[in-house]
Amino acid sequence: MTESCTNCHLPITTHQSLLHLHGPRLSALLKKDAGADVVDVALPEDRAALYESAASAHIVNRIEALDNTDSFVLLDTDDAEQQLANGIESTAELYNMLSGDSDMDFPMCAECTESVIAALKDQFENLTKERDVYIQQIRRLERPSSSEKVSNEEEAYRAALQEQTDLMKRLRDLETHHDSLKQQLAELDKEHEAIKSESTKFWLEQNKLAAEIDQFMNERESMNLIYDHDSDQLNKLRKTNVYNDTFCIGHDGFFGTINGLRLGRLPDILVEWPEINAALGYIVLLYANVLEILNISLPNYRLIPMGSTSRIEVLDSHHRPTKVLNVFSSGEYTIERVLTFRKFDEAMVALLSILKYIYKELLKRDANLSIPYKIDREYINGLSIKLSVNSSNGEWTTACKYLLTDSKWVLAYSSSTAGAAFANNDTS
Q1: Name one GO molecular function term (predicted).
Q2: Which CATH number fits domain 243-427: 1.10.533.10, 3.10.290.30, 1.10.418.40, 1.10.10.10?
């Protein structure tokens, strides 16, 4: 069987005699005196011989010398395989016993074994010298001592007893301190468990709070988006003058217009009366809205906007209607033309009076205001608003144009006042 030296790692061949070792022989090779207090100093010498034999070709003779009662038994050829297996196992056991009882690993070659043997011999000599020193010391102690030595020894004994007492006291103190520390440790463990429980509770609440914060932030972001959208819409509405869009006053050549409807008639441009009546209906509606915006009450009139058939009620001192003025005309020319146009003229004068009253109320709020065209009784900028007086020319058409211009001015001021009031309410 070929193996490697555990020291130099060179290949070695195990001697065939090692394949025939048995348990009793292996035990005899490594024997220790179990009842002795000191290891047999002769053991290194025996082991050195064993190690030397294990590395040589004559290890069989040395192993047989340890137990003369045992001898090698030659096995039959049929048991060769079993013999080889048992030999390998016995050899491995021998190597394990040798390796376990020393600081070296086996197997080793002859050269490495010689080095080991030399080291064991040195160890043997050192142990022998140490043994001799112990023997001399024991003999010296066994000799009778003088009184001075006895006194010294008694003193040393008493000192040793005192030291023992002190050490015992210190040990008791340390045990007491240990018990105190153990109790403190138990309390700290309880406190740690409580803190751990509180920490777990805290993190659960923290995670819950974090989830609520995330939900709140999402809702807040959504609300901010809605707020931004509504603010944009509000700004657009603030910039949008709904009254100007509802009552779009302009002009078309010589005619003043409201929402595209012409107000007036010319000899060469005969505007149909339904268009004129519709325009007058828008004027009545415009005045009604302005009065509502400015929170103004008319003392003598009540506006009834009804489109092309709008009316104005004349009130007495108790605000009871005494007359109804039609702010429209059929435009038919009959024998009663003069009477018909007088009623229409009375309605036109009422419109002009209502416009003048609104202007006076605005002057109470802002004395620096100035209407574009001055109103004096039935005249506006010096032209009469009566159709019966100006039916033969375009003065009535121009007067109606002035009426629409002043109406637009009043509407613009009223809408700006309403916008400012709305902005103040929104801010507050």
Answers
A1: phosphatidylinositol 3-kinase binding
A2: 1.10.418.40
